[in-house]
From TrEMBL:
<dbReference type="Pfam" id="PF05699">
    <property type="entry name" value="Dimer_Tnp_hAT"/>
</dbReference>
<dbReference type="InterPro" id="IPR012337">
    <property type="entry name" value="RNaseH-like_sf"/>
</dbReference>
<dbReference type="InterPro" id="IPR006580">
    <property type="entry name" value="Znf_TTF"/>
</dbReference>
<feature type="region of interest" description="Disordered">
    <location>
        <begin position="19"/>
        <end position="51"/>
    </location>
</feature>
<protein>
    <recommendedName>
        <fullName>TTF-type domain-containing protein</fullName>
    </recommendedName>
</protein>
<dbReference type="GO" id="GO:0046983">
    <property type="term" value="F:protein dimerization activity"/>
</dbReference>
<feature type="domain" description="TTF-type">
    <location>
        <begin position="83"/>
        <end position="174"/>
    </location>
</feature>
<dbReference type="InterPro" id="IPR025398">
    <property type="entry name" value="DUF4371"/>
</dbReference>
<dbReference type="Pfam" id="PF14291">
    <property type="entry name" value="DUF4371"/>
</dbReference>
<feature type="compositionally biased region" description="Polar residues">
    <location>
        <begin position="19"/>
        <end position="36"/>
    </location>
</feature>
<dbReference type="InterPro" id="IPR008906">
    <property type="entry name" value="HATC_C_dom"/>
</dbReference>
């Protein structure tokens, strides 16, 4: 019994005051703690058999913490003979496997205790070594051999070396993992680098899109001095990012035009999805379309208008190419501007104006987004027609200018009857349209306030479709040709003149003929009548087209509805009956409740501002308090007043598709326009989401 008490007596000790210092494996503040890396929960290594100490001994390391090596200012002292001896923290430097227990005031061997087997030395595994006299060894004065310390002796034992090797292997395994884990880690690391690389490409694409800059260059080879904005930006990134440079310099670096198109298309599609989701949330929307010319192509801009919390949003959706052939007049007007914009030609043009006594007038450039400039250009060409023809003839006759071929081409077009007739007719009709255009472009203009002017313009075009008005136009055309010394051939394009002289048949010489024969069609008066009849039809076609389109755009029902909406925004219930009756069933509006809601809102806003506006109404509008009024008000704001958003898209069109980018295909042009115009949405795009969509398709790069 006494033996057993002595053997196990080392476990029967009380917790001292230092026990709390190492509770829950947390070392004392100010102590250094050496630990190995944490175990990967996804691939846990096989844990060795651990030598267990009594449950009280919790201040030394385990397999997760590593050896506990507290460095104290003073360690407990034990009397050995006549000297007080204790542990010294300097021993930690020479023995990395050594650990110290504050509770037991003893040292242990971490690898032997944790990774050892039953054959390991008990002193450094379970009991702990605390004979401080032998821990440092001794120097013999009589013998040439010095005695080794107990630590040095233990460090050279076979079992300790085996356990140390196990510890080193385990530590390395924790850091690098098994072969499978290492392969998986290498794959994950490669994927992360590839994804970071593609994200950088996406950032470059989005930057160029938002700024409306070109991507490509004429020569994108590595030997080119300018590889285009996209590749040059990639070269710049490769100088700052080593991982990016590594992939960028590989053969497959994902910078081709097809990859650019994929990233552009994904970005544009995400913006479209955002707009579509907002349209669905809104419940109703309107579609606006307008067209303009861009490098000999007609482009139609498609936009939508909707409300979100009574805030109006107008979004660009698409740009569609239209095919039109009747663009001769405006193409020629543009060519005239380009030709006379040269300083030399402009000086000669001014000189001829002075000689001919014509008021100095400059030719204006045609704008694809502002149609009123076409009126000024038609007027300028008409007034300066004689000076233009004179200058072009001088250029052609002198044949010293390298632009003589261009001058011949312009001269051929402007002397054609079709150009002269269309110039005079377009001047007349565009001046009428410009009046209405100016009114509708005002910031505070509404369709309801312009009803009278719209009806007046339509009536004006209807009055122009008469024989009298055509004769007036025809006289202007004839006088124009006489003033400018032009003898145009006004023969219609479908008329055919035979080279053979037509003669009356000899069988009719002895008869009185009361009907015309083919030979009499040579009569000049009848020929003029035929010519005038052809251009009369041409004139009527232009007027009819304008009337039809005006009636479609501004029908009587739409004008009545527009007026009713204006009254509705003024909270006038009775004058807005047309609008209310039109949509009450669609929106399930209770008319009686609506009338009460309008009256209450009108009284509320009138107290604040007698001349209240729509913005004042929005401030007090609540969907739960005024449900019927809220729905109708949202719908009224959705109905567009003008196509201003389309015109803004045309302004962006020229920036994106400039003279150096005319070969761009339609899909790329549309996507770039969408990202550039809807910049508030493109700024919110996440390169992570774009990358995830991009990675869905089969890619050589592991993503």
């Amino acid at each position: 019994m006494d033996k057993n008490n002595k053997v196990f007596g080392i476990f029967n000790f009380k917790s001292n005051k230092n026990e709390s210092l190492c509770e829950n494996n947390e070392p004392q503040e100010g102590l250094e703690n050496t630990s190995v890396a944490e175990v990967d929960p996804d691939d846990p290594p096989v844990l060795p058999d651990v030598q267990k100490l009594p449950s009280e001994s919790i201040d030394i390391g385990d397999i997760n913490t590593g050896p506990i090596r507290p460095k104290l200012q003073t360690y407990p002292k034990t009397v050995f003979g006549k000297q007080n001896r204790g542990f010294s923290s300097t021993l930690f430097d020479g023995f990395p496997w050594l650990e110290y227990s504050i509770q037991k005031d003893a040292v242990f061997c971490y690898p032997c205790r944790v990774f050892g087997t039953g054959r390991s030395e008990d002193t450094f595994v379970t009991k702990g070594f605390r004979n401080w006299k032998k821990i440092s060894g001794s120097i013999s004065k009589t013998s040439k051999f010095n005695s080794k310390s107990k630590l040095e002796i233990h460090a050279t034992t076979k079992q300790h070396l085996i356990n140390s090797e196990k510890w080193a292997s385990y530590t390395q395994n924790i850091k690098s993992g098994s072969v499978h884990t290492q392969m998986a880690s290498a794959y994950r690391e490669k994927v992360l680098k590839n994804r970071a690389y593609i994200k950088n490409l996406i950032d470059v694409v989005l930057y160029l899109e938002r700024q409306g800059l070109a991507f490509r260059a004429h020569n994108e080879e590595k030997t080119s001095i300018n590889q285009g904005n996209f590749k040059e930006a990639c070269v710049l990134l490769s100088k700052c990012n080593e991982d990016f440079s590594t992939i960028f310099n590989e053969k497959t670096n994902y910078t081709s035009w097809s990859i650019q198109n994929d990233l552009i298309n994904i970005s544009a599609q995400m913006i479209k999805n955002t707009i579509v989701n907002e349209l669905i949330e809104s419940g109703f929307f309107s579609v606006m379309c307008d067209e303009a010319r861009c490098f000999r192509q007609e482009q139609m801009s498609i936009c939508v208008r909707y409300t979100k919390n009574l805030k109006v949003y107008e979004r660009f959706l698409d740009m569609c190419k239209l095919v039109k052939d009747t663009r001769i007049v405006f193409n020629c007007l543009e060519t005239l501007y380009v030709y006379f914009s040269h300083p030399g030609n402009d000086a000669k043009f001014t000189e001829i104006q002075v000689k001919l006594g014509i008021k100095k007038t400059s030719l204006t450039r045609l704008s694809d987004t502002r149609w009123n400039c076409r009126v000024r250009n038609c007027v300028a060409v008409k007034l300066n027609y004689k000076a233009i023809v004179t200058l072009l003839n001088d250029e052609i006759n002198s044949s010293t200018n390298k632009d003589v071929v261009q001058a011949i081409g312009i001269m051929t077009i402007i002397t054609k009857p079709s150009f002269i007739v269309n110039l005079i007719i377009l001047e007349e009709v565009l001046q009428i349209i410009n009046i209405l255009s100016t009114q509708l472009q005002k910031k505070d203009a509404t369709l309801g306030s312009a009803v009278t002017l719209i009806e007046g313009v339509i009536k004006t075009f209807e009055s122009l479709r008469t024989e009298v008005e055509f004769h007036n136009i025809w006289e202007k055309i004839i006088n124009f040709t006489k003033i400018n010394n032009i003898i145009p051939d006004f023969t219609g394009p479908n008329s055919k003149t035979s080279k053979r002289q037509r003669q009356s048949t000899s069988n009719l010489e002895d008869f009185h003929v009361f009907a015309t024969t083919s030979s009499e069609q040579q009569n000049q008066n009848e020929f003029n009548q035929y010519t005038e009849s052809y251009w009369r039809t041409h004139y009527y076609q232009i007027i009819d087209t304008l009337i039809i389109h005006f009636n479609k755009r501004f029908s009587s029902n739409s004008l009545e509805l527009a007026t009713s909406i204006d009254y509705f925004h003024k909270m006038n219930y009775y004058e807005s009956q047309c609008f209310i009756e039109q949509y009450k069933d669609l929106l399930n509006v209770d008319v009686n409740t609506l009338q009460s809601e309008m009256l209450v809102v009108k009284n509320c806003v009138s107290r604040r501002n007698p001349n209240f506006t729509l913005e004042d109404i929005k401030l007090i509008m609540d969907a739960e308090l005024y449900p019927n009024l809220y729905k109708l008000l949202s719908l009224s704001l959705t109905i567009p007043i003008s196509s201003a958003i389309c015109e803004r898209s045309f302004s962006a069109m020229r920036k994106i598709k400039n003279w150096l980018r005319t070969s761009m295909n339609q899909d790329r042009f549309t996507n770039l326009s969408l990202i550039y115009i809807e910049r508030d949405l493109s700024n919110e795009l996440s390169n992570e989401k774009i990358l995830d969509t991009f990675a869905i398709s089969n890619r050589r790069l592991q993503l």
